[in-house]
Write a structure and sequence with these properties.
single chain; alpha+beta; 2 helices; about 15% helix; globular
Amino acid sequence: MNSSPEYVDGPGSTLSAVSRVLGVGSSAGGLEALQEFLGSLTPDGSAIIVAQHLAPDHDTLLVELLSRGTPFEVEEAVTGVRSVPTS
């Protein structure tokens, strides 16, 4: 018997539920602190949402930079696209 929490997302689709959501915010100068913080965590089923103040007219390398030092899968949120837990 599977004891992990689950939820259904549409007909015939069962996804593992996230155990908790952690939100972290920083200013544009907070990259080093974000990298250090995320690098100190271990995967435990939590979703981590990072909000960082960025200039709207500049491209960002945040996903690539945060991916380098954390065991988590890092992706940029896109309006209208649902993020789902990975196994």
